[in-house]
């Protein structure tokens, strides 16, 4: 069931890849020496194989694999491209296409491809066997009946007159010496019972002994199947006889592929019961178009803000009503557009089981990975970025976190280390957690290292809370592994992870208990482009503070402020939090006189809080997040900009940078 | 004079402090009248801030201050020339911009040791046409990202 949503994508992409293979094969035929083309084909085939295997279409994957082997031989110049080779590869591609079509029609994608596989293998081993394998004289090929329209007509007429059409498959014993004689005897029996209308191999070939051991005939008869079977079995040296009623369906499939009838018919039997076609209900849209749509919508949001402002200024009732209505519609539109860009996080997660398996081998650790919430959806752009940081964190957990099986048992833990990967929604955010039950983070060791690497001083470190100490491992130039390993890099990693996540507007927090394990928790925004903000004024300048980091707004009297360590702090529900004067911090030109009251916005980062001192609250608004441009990238405490209703630019404060 | 020898390039001519500068027309996106500018904290003083350029947030720098001239009050003639290099959009505040002309390549000479007061590094060369002297601006150097953000390292 859960594969369903990928099925369409799989089918579409498979078709594309097959198309690419076809195209490139054709080019290759013209330039047989161009290995670059072979590379292209190989790449498409490889992707196809991977997708097929992931989706569980084993036959598809196997055949592609065989094809890949041939291509590999060509690529490594062990095999020369000639017509024969290409023919076989083309045949294989035809089979692949048939499978994909079957899957698209709701089938299982199973298909008997032994013949093509054999030929591919033969080619792979060398060109000599080519001729033989191209003309296989084996059982599966030749015993298939070929029924033409005339014969079909005869069958129909026979059926109308109350006779039966029977397919009789006869196999002679391997040690049979006089095959022609046995055939003759069998035919005699058959001709007594009815009329032979078709035979495979042809009667002529049968008489000349040009067949292996088995043959099939189509008999029109009044007699019962069992009766005929018993009669043929009496012929000596007949090993096996099967008599079946002829089925119309078989004819159809044979007509479609008259030259190479495939013994695929049995697989088709289950087709009627399979689920209905899944194609046609979705279309694939280029991400560029969605981006363009998003950009246009962003413009609309800006104008919406402007309209809201104008209608508020004019206080015209009808205008206000219309604008309100438009606002509602555009928020619906917004959620639809954002939803279109959402993809399940599984697209990133699905590579991890494989990775864990490999890591477990490489590091000789026993690992168990559990994934929950893989269907949680995130904006495509976030998904694209989040892969590498997650890989890093998981590798980190395995390498530094999980102990070796012996150590674990000594500690009384199960030998297999547990890694939990969990994704879930919460409010306007998606959380991804990576939890291990390994050794946890050793505070003393972290502090030692941090002091040694001059990230902090010893005094600073002593005053730090555990979570502050854990954050140190994400400072640049920090690595807790005593030995550098290939798995989790060289200490350049975790700060890169943090930077990537922060550049996505997210945050990462670490919890850990020494000896029990660690949890890395990543908070990510649902979308990158439209966010809710609180607009505030600092002196005469307007700034936007993301609502996601705001706890609440308040007005405090100057006399209620406290002093601690020469810093002004305030009491917020029993907690002492520092005041951050935005005027000073942002060097805003002073144009206002100081009030007796301070308007403060209380923001948080993890469990730390700060009160930002502003001059007035303008209100809450949905804004389009825009980048400041390359020229100013990296500006302090500014995560971006937005365009307000009056056309002016307001900067968006990065409250994470304001809390220290 | 109209008899061209060699190649000529189209350039935009603008004024700063009574001197005429040129930029190749391909690098120029548009010429705008002054619009409200939002200050960006922590940037150097010649970075005036960002503007809304038809929906795109674009940084603007004051070329006068970039070259170390005295700041001048905004006038009717003041323009913002938007330029693009290496996918970077930046607006340049200039005293006036009012001319497009063809500049013949063979008129261009390497920058003399001192041209006015502008650092020679910001200049590709100079060109004399009739009695006018044009200074060809080295945009890459002018837009060098180094020391744009003074505060970047303070908290980083």
Q: Explain this structure to me?
A:
- The complex is a heterodimer of chains A (660) and B (156).
- Chain A is an alpha+beta fold and 660 residues long.
- Chain A folds into 5 domains: 4-136, HPT domain (Four Helix Bundle (Hemerythrin (Met), subunit A)), CATH 1.20.120; 141-262, Histidine kinase CheA-like, P2 response regulator-binding domain (Alpha-Beta Plaits), CATH 3.30.70.1110; 287-340; 344-525, Heat Shock Protein 90 (2-Layer Sandwich); 530-658, CheA-289, Domain 4 (OB fold (Dihydrolipoamide Acetyltransferase, E2P), Beta Barrel).
- Chain A is built from 25 helices and 22 strands.
- A 6-stranded mixed beta sheet of chain A has the order 14-18-19-17-16-15. A 5-stranded mixed beta sheet of chain A has the order 6-8-9-11-10. Chain A has a 5-stranded mixed beta sheet with strand order 20-12-13-22-21.
- The longest helix of chain A is centred in the middle third of the chain and has 28 residues, at 287-314.
- Chain A starts with a helix and ends with a helix.
- Mean pLDDT of chain A is 78; it is low at 127-142, 249-279 and 481-492.
- Chain B has 156 residues and is mainly beta.
- Chain B has one domain: OB fold (Dihydrolipoamide Acetyltransferase, E2P) (Beta Barrel), CATH 2.40.50.180.
- Helix content of chain B is 8%, strand content 47%.
- Chain B has 3 helices and 11 strands.
- Chain B has helices spanning 63-66, 139-142, 152-155, and strands spanning 8-16, 19-24, 28-33, 47-53, 56-62, 79-85, 88-94, 96-104, 108-109, 123-129, 132-137.
- In chain B, the strands form 2 sheets. A 6-stranded mixed beta sheet of chain B has the order 8-1-2-11-10-9. A 5-stranded mixed beta sheet of chain B has the order 3-6-7-5-4.
- Chain B is globular, with a radius of gyration of 16 Å.
- Residues 151-156 of chain B have low confidence and may be disordered.
- Chains A and B meet through helix 14, strand 21 and strand 22 of A and strand 4, strand 5, strand 7 and helix 3 of B.
